[in-house]
């Protein structure tokens, strides 16, 4: 399918991107801004967010905002406060890209440690739940609210050694489907993207011996990221779509 959108498809939209300081999230923030959106850059490491901010401003795109937040320690109140601030500053929120994730340990199921399991489920699942709950009142008011989750090939087909990460991505897809069904009677659309193997730090952590030049770059995935955030995708709800055709 051709996922092209108009050059200013996200004009005046306000879009929150988690994990906007690196990898796919950074590129998505850049691409949303390029298409007219004011992007709220959420992430853990401030200097990475500042670098994304600077690149967006230098390119002449709408000035973004920075929300430094460690999803591991964030509370429900943090998300409610963040959404209040967004409403006061911008008066609207049109979309969230849930992109930030931890990979955790690649290794046998029997070696999954309780503490690292809790951290991973906190960042990859519970943070998405609490942030989405806090944002839904604003998303419902948007002309076409959008929530895009990020899954993985191991989020719909379990694979040896992918442990807590795979479990968390199954949970993300479940959350996406439950919410999509509830939102089907509204203008809000809820979907997920499976990026597939992509040239980022996380991929290098999982496959350190791989030749990264063989992988797609985040930029190559952007047509789908833009499409699911735009008005064009009004008829799509509750789907997890592969950004890369099967290889
Ligand atoms: N790359 C792939 O091949 C691939 C394949 C399938 C799915 N995915 C999914 O695609 C998404 C993006 O992955 P990526 O490859 O771009 O990963 P990445 O380069 O490692 O980037 C992950 C981002 O998440 C942020 N993050 C991690 N923990 C956080 C926390 N506690 N609080 C706030 N932010 C946090 C990181 O911020 P800091 O840099 O500040 O830590 C970073 O910006 C993830 O959901 C991943 O599971 C990737």
TrEMBL record:
Keywords: Oxidoreductase. InterPro entries: NAD(P)-bd_dom_sf, Sc_DH/Rdtase_CS, SDR_fam. The keyword Oxidoreductase applies. The keyword Oxidoreductase applies. It holds the Pfam family adh_short. Gene3D superfamilies: NAD(P)-binding Rossmann-like Domain. Transmembrane segments: none annotated. SUPFAM superfamilies: NAD(P)-binding Rossmann-fold domains. NCBIfam families: PRK08945.1. Belongs to the short-chain dehydrogenases/reductases (SDR) family. PANTHER family: ALCOHOL DEHYDROGENASE. This is YciK family oxidoreductase. It comes from Vibrio ulleungensis. The lineage of its organism: Bacteria, Pseudomonadati, Pseudomonadota, Gammaproteobacteria, Vibrionales.
């Amino acid at each position: 399918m051709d996922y092209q959108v108009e050059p200013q498809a996200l004009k005046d939209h306000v879009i929150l991107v988690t994990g906007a300081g690196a990898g796919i999230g950074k590129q998505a923030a850049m691409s949303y801004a390029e298409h007219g959106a004011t992007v709220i850059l959420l992430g853990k490491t401030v200097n990475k967010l500042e670098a994304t901010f600077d690149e967006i401003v230098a390119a002449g795109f709408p000035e973004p905002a920075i929300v430094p937040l460690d999803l591991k320690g964030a509370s429900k109140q943090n998300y409610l406060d963040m959404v209040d601030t967004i409403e006061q500053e911008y008066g609207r929120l049109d979309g969230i890209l849930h992109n930030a994730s931890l990979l955790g340990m690649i290794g046998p199921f029997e070696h999954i440690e309780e503490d690292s399991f809790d951290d991973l489920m906190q960042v990859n699942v519970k943070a998405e739940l609490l942030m989405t709950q806090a944002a839904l009142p604003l998303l419902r008011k948007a002309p076409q609210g959008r929530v895009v989750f990020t899954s993985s090939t191991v989020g719909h087909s379990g694979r040896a050694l992918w442990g807590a990460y795979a479990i968390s991505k199954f949970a993300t897809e479940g959350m996406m489907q439950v919410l999509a069904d509830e939102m089907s009677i509204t203008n809000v659309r809820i979907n997920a993207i499976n990026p597939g193997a992509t040239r980022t730090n996380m991929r290098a952590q999982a496959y350190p011996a791989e030749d990264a030049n063989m992988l797609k770059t985040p930029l190559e995935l952007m047509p789908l990221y833009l499409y699911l955030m735009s008005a064009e995708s009004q008829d799509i709800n509750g789907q997890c779509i592969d950004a890369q055709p099967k290889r």
